[in-house]
Write a structure and sequence with these properties.
about 1200 residues; alpha+beta; Severin; seven-stranded mixed β-sheet; 39 strands; disordered N terminus
């Protein structure tokens, strides 16, 4: 018991917390009683032989002093291990510095836990004290019973063990309190934010928040003082003089054409010469006219001026009475008998004589006379209108004929490329800084490398180059805004930029080393010299501080008046009034914005006043930042650094700053970025015009009728005919005109071929003319003549003929895999090479017209890859398929050397360039003319030994083989004898080779119609096994419907829904299902009309999932995995062949169960806008409680409500 009490007293005594001290004082009585009991007990222990365990009195006093007078340890209580260590830690007199540091660290990690547990358990300790006193009294009652050494030791050890276990557990709990954070992944805010990207998981690595005033979290708005600015140079003395409405027009120093009606020197036009300008300026200023005085002397001198007394007497007339009688010779009856005087009643009091009043004024000495010439101009106009009435010419034409131009006052010069005029809204080199988080600020900064940091985005515009620097730690908004601004500059040619592409430098950029070096050279630095990024909070705080520096003025009577609504804030577009002149001062950018209705004199005054304000310099001492120097204090430069006052003010603005004049509707992207709500029309969601007619009618037309199959079968596709310069060339050999009975013979004089390599071209040697590559583009010049002959009456060709002039035509041949740059370069070079200005024709691989094929007389071969490519082929064997039905139109296309590429209805050529062997493989159903055509092409290869094949052997051998009896060399070349890889016809002797027909079924015009495709390889006299290509199907607008009539059956090919048209799947899917029903009905009727009394062999296939029998109807086929994935997601299966008849029955089902209509996806062919139509009448009445006729008569809103309640909406 003594140990327990002493321990509690020690724990309370060592507590330095104020709260624990107060609590210990509240129990002072208990503590004092307990001390007295401890003294008594210690005395008893001494008498009982426990002197060895008792400390001397000096040590007791020393411990009491160290405990500060509070409860102390019992002298019989031993130290715990932790306490002893702490006591030894206090004694550091003999320890080294390293030992002291280790002890201090250990105390800092553990002692606070002890203090915390002791403070929180103070209530329990006091209760223990009370119980200890009670037990102590019980023990003191029995004086004869003294506790033994063993009992005390056991109690001490048990209590020590419990206390150590409890402290150890508390320590582990506190240590594991934050341990869960290490076992989970960091949040998205840490992983994907700028702060997480910069500093990773530990917060200790975050650099201190910059101590700049601009980054103060508790900041106030600091804007420049708003004060009016009045011009000191403008002379306003003339403003008090009289002026006329046409002063501004007459003061215009630029002479205009006198052919413009309604103006000018003669009343018709404006000024036409410098002399007229001077005269009009003189008239506009006015003449000084003195005001004469009204005294007798002035009056006498005015009337007597230039008159002598002799002249007056000489010209004097004498009048007598007779003269007066003649004047008054009037009958007396005509005179008034009585005279009546009437006094007029005046409403106003009579005033003095105005002449006398004017003479009495002494302030009028002279006045300015202004001559406007309005009367003369009006007279001229009237005369011109009278002349126009008697003439057939217009007024403008008459004015032009009467004009006299003087071009000496006008100098027309073409500006040099890159010329920047005064007050232009851009510079030759501009560095735009994109920074912010809410409303990103795009500001012009000094184009130096020191201003670039990794935390922001920068745009460098330099003439024909535009660079977009994306900082490593730039936020998402800055990256997006920087990309949009760069694209806007590139597309619109803004800021004087003529670049053809954007060079992006940064993490996502693909700039080359030379481009990166050029970027830094323009900024006067070296690669990778950018500064480090600053604190992540810098973006938002910098943005708000920079907005505070915005200044907006309005020109009012030659004075710039601040606009208080937008002073120190982001301007809005509502401030731009067409009748006002506004001044926007953004520090490094100074704009004079002029409305479209502002007159020229006001514009001139605004520029003068604005220029004076610009020359005053800048003063941002009242602001947190200066927009001209703020970029140099960002990033690592802004940490623990204040902006000096010298950087906030200056007498002159730097030369890289921008002073610009901007007219309304001609704003640059840099100016528009300063506004909060500038409209971006590229993001406006416009209403789709699709199905506009159906929306207008209120319903979607899905009732399509099947096509007329008789017209489809009887439709005749015209034979290919090339028309150049209004002349029919047919297939390039001859053409007979049935209407005129004239025959045209086409003779080829010369064929020249150029190979296009990016933006260069080189002429192909004559030996290689006809050798093409699918990844290249070529330009072909055809020099030909046309000889025309007629027919005799007997029908025989006439002996008379006429040979026409030399003609030239240019073909631009583009390979299937040719890059876009090569295609564009080929088109441009075709125009450049066309010196004869002949017709130009684009030719795509696989769609060559017969006239083009006849240029090479069966020598045309399309190789894989690029010309002069050093890529090594996969093997020595190369496979070519033959197309063209005549020897002169033969063409070989290279395909992968595989069994999968074989077709039983044509012939192939396998060529080994190392051994010189050529194997001609004929399919089981290959036609005789096809065999002759491929043998002709192979003989040309043997004869010419083209360099494109790179033959190693000088001797070439040709061997023919038939399908089913191939040699081992052939099987090894194609990879085995697995004939399941292609649709073989070895076991199908009834198969007949015919020319397939392909129909495109569509309802784009509003009516379901067919359009039969014409193939350039089509020949009437012989069957064409492969007239169409895969691109005919996949290049159409999707989802498309094609009907293929082939010898293997009738196939209905269905396209896919493009991911870009997912939003149109509502009404679009309904329309497509209606087209499918009409197409299936057409296919069945087509088969019945063509094959009567025979079961229908009409099949349905989906794009990307075509079976082998369908793909073998084309010369070569490439699997489209992207399309297959779309149709598989819609529930289609690969290689599935569906019967059109079965599919049509399910598509035209009239009724469906209610549960099937309530689930999604809906069955094919169901219109989702009218699901109630697929319910049986009995089910309809049970569901809605009324008949269908009553439901139809209900308003639409009631129908909609009932359908929603029934789950059919």
């Amino acid at each position: 018991m003594i140990f327990q009490v002493g321990s509690v007293g020690r724990s309370v005594g060592r507590n330095n917390n104020a709260s624990s001290i107060v609590k210990s004082q509240s129990h002072s009585a208990v503590s004092s009683a307990f001390r007295s009991s401890l003294k008594t007990d210690s005395t008893k222990c001494k008498t009982s032989g426990f002197n060895g365990t008792v400390e001397n009195q000096d040590e007791t006093d020393e411990s009491r002093a160290r405990m500060g007078g509070s409860l102390r340890r019992s002298t019989t209580q031993p130290f715990k291990s932790t306490e002893s260590s702490s006591n030894t830690d206090d004694d550091m007199s003999g320890a080294t510095i390293q030992e002291r540091l280790a002890r201090l660290k250990r105390n800092g990690e553990l002692n606070w836990q002890k203090r915390k547990s002791q403070i929180t358990n103070i209530e329990n300790e006091l209760s223990v004290i009370t119980s200890g006193n009670y037990l102590f009294k019980e023990n003191s009652l029995s004086k004869n019973e003294i506790p033994s050494r063993s009992i005390c030791r056991k109690e001490k050890e048990g209590t020590d063990l419990k206390s150590s276990i409890l402290a150890d557990r508390l320590g582990k709990l506190d240590a594991a309190k934050d341990g869960w954070k290490k076992r989970i992944q960091p949040s998205d805010a840490v992983r994907f934010s700028v702060e997480g990207k910069m500093f990773g998981k530990t917060d200790s690595q975050i650099p201190p928040r910059p101590s700049l005033s601009i980054l103060s979290t508790q900041r106030t708005k600091r804007s420049p003082k708003a004060a009016k600015f009045k011009s000191k140079k403008c002379n306003n003395s003339l403003k008090s003089m009289p002026s006329s409405p046409c002063n501004e027009q007459l003061s215009n120093p630029i002479s205009r054409s006198v052919s413009a009606p309604g103006s000018g020197k003669d009343g018709l036009l404006s000024l036409s010469s410098s002399s007229s300008v001077a005269e009009d300026e003189k008239d506009a200023k006015g003449l000084k006219v003195s005001v004469p005085k009204t005294d007798d002397e002035t009056f006498t001198s005015f009337f007597n001026g230039g008159l002598s007394s002799e002249k007056i007497l000489r010209e004097r007339l004498e009048i007598n009475d007779e003269d007066l009688d003649l004047v008054t010779n009037i009958n007396s009856s005509q005179l008034l008998v009585q005279k009546k005087n009437i006094k007029m009643q005046r409403r106003r009091v009579t005033v003095r004589n105005p002449l006398k009043s004017l003479a009495a004024r002494l302030d009028l000495q002279e006045y300015t006379e202004v001559k406007t010439g309005v009367a003369q101009k009006e007279l001229k106009r009237i005369k011109l209108e009278k002349a126009a009435k008697n003439s057939t010419l217009a007024i403008e034409a008459l004015a032009g004929l009467a004009s006299q131009e003087d071009f000496t006052a006008i100098t027309l010069k073409k500006p040099m490329e890159g010329t920047i005029f005064p007050d232009s809204p851009y510079k030759s080199l501009m560095l735009l800084h994109v920074k912010g988080r809410r409303h990103v600020q795009t500001r012009l900064i000094e184009p130096i490398a020191e201003n670039v940091n990794t935390g922001d985005c920068f745009i460098l515009v330099s003439g024909n180059k535009i660079f977009h620097y994306v900082g490593k730690y730039a936020n998402v908004i800055e990256r997006s805004r920087g990309s949009e601004i760069s694209s806007n500059i590139l597309q619109n040619g803004d800021l004087g930029c003529t670049a053809d592409s954007i060079i992006t430098i940064g993490e996502s950029g693909k700039a080359t080393t030379e481009q990166i070096k050029e970027f830094w050279n323009l900024l006067g630095g070296k690669p990778d010299c950018e500064r480090k990024a600053g604190n992540p909070d810098e973006d938002e705080l910098f943005e708000s501080c920079l907005v505070d520096t915005n200044m907006v003025y309005e020109l009012i009577n030659d004075e710039l008046v601040p606009n208080e609504n937008y002073w120190g804030s982001i301007p809005k577009i509502e401030i731009l009034d067409p009748n006002k002149v506004l001044i926007f001062d953004f520090g490094s950018e100074f704009y004079v914005w002029m409305g479209k209705n502002v007159g020229p004199s006001v514009r001139k005054t605004a520029l003068k006043v604005a220029k004076e304000l610009w020359e005053e310099g800048f003063d941002y001492l009242d602001c947190a930042v200066c927009p001209l120097t703020a970029a140099s204090f960002l990033g690592e430069n802004g940490v623990n650094r204040e902006i000096p006052d010298s950087a906030k003010a200056g007498p002159v603005r730097p030369s890289w700053a921008l002073f610009a004049k901007i007219t309304q509707n001609m704003e640059t992207v840099l100016f528009r970025e300063k506004f909060l709500d500038w409209p971006d029309y590229s993001r406006v969601i416009q209403k789709s015009k699709k199905n506009e007619e159906s929306e207008h009618n209120g319903s979607l037309n899905t009732d399509f009728k099947a096509c007329d199959v008789k017209d489809m079968i009887e439709n005749v596709v015209p034979e290919p005919d090339l028309i150049l310069e209004n002349s029919h060339l047919g297939r390039g050999i001859r053409f007979f005109d049935e209407e005129t009975r004239r025959c045209s013979e086409i003779s080829t004089r010369e064929v020249t071929v150029w190979h296009i390599n990016e933006y260069e071209y080189s002429e192909v040697p004559s030996k290689s003319v006809g050798q093409f590559h699918e990844e290249d583009s070529y330009v072909i010049r055809w020099h030909y003549t046309i000889t025309i002959t007629g027919r005799e009456l007997s029908g025989q060709p006439s002996k008379h003929f006429t040979t026409g002039r030399d003609r030239y035509a240019y073909f631009c041949w583009q390979g299937a895999n040719s890059p876009v740059n090569d295609k564009g370069a080929a088109a441009c070079l075709t125009v450049e090479l066309d010196k004869e200005h002949g017709p130009q024709i684009q030719v795509v691989q696989g769609f060559e017209p017969p006239a083009f094929l006849n240029l090479f007389q069966g020598k045309m071969i399309v190789h894989g890859g690029r010309r002069f490519s050093e890529e090594v082929s996969t093997g020595p064997w190369r496979m070519f398929i033959c197309r063209g039905e005549t020897e002169s139109e033969a063409v070989l296309f290279e395909v992968p050397c595989s069994m999968r590429q074989l077709r039983s209805v044509t012939s192939f050529a396998l060529i080994n360039n190392s051994t010189g062997k050529i194997i001609v493989w004929h399919g089981w159903k290959s036609c005789e003319h096809t065999k002759r055509v491929i043998l002709h092409a192979v003989n040309e290869i043997q004869k010419n030994m083209y360099d494109e094949f790179k033959f190693e052997s000088s001797k070439i051998t040709i061997r023919e083989e038939m399908e089913g009896s191939e040699s081992r060399d052939f099987l090894n070349a194609v990879g085995g004898d697995n004939r399941k890889l292609y649709f073989s016809l070895l076991d199908n002797d009834d198969f007949e080779v015919k020319t397939p027909r392909l129909f495109h079924l569509t309802s784009v015009s509003g009516e379901f119609q067919f359009n039969e495709l014409a193939s350039p390889y089509l020949t009437k006299n012989v069957p064409t096994p492969f007239p169409f290509l895969q691109s005919d199907l996949y290049s159409a607008s999707q989802p498309a419907l094609f009907l293929l009539d082939s010898p293997s059956g009738l196939w209905l090919w269905q396209g896919w829904w493009d991911n870009n048209t997912e939003s149109d799947r509502g009404t679009g899917n309904v329309r497509f299902q209606a087209e499918r029903r009409a197409a299936m009905t057409t296919a069945l009727a087509y088969w019945d009309h063509k094959n009567k009394n025979s079961p229908p062999e009409v099949y349905l296939v989906w794009a990307g999932l075509e079976p082998l029998v369908f793909t073998n109807q084309f010369p070569f086929w490439t699997n489209r995995d992207d399309v297959a994935e779309i149709n598989i997601q819609d529930g289609k299966k690969p290689g599935e062949i569906l019967s059109v008849k079965t599919e049509l029955e399910s598509l035209t089902q009239s009724y469906y169960p209610l549960s099937q209509l309530q689930n999604r996806p809906l069955p094919d062919g169901v219109n989702p806008t009218s699901l109630e139509d697929y319910l049986k009448p009995q089910c309809f009445q049970e569901l809605f409680g009324l008949e269908k006729e009553e439901f139809i008569r209900m308003p639409s809103w009631k129908k909609k409500k009932l359908k929603q309640e029934a789950g059919l909406f």
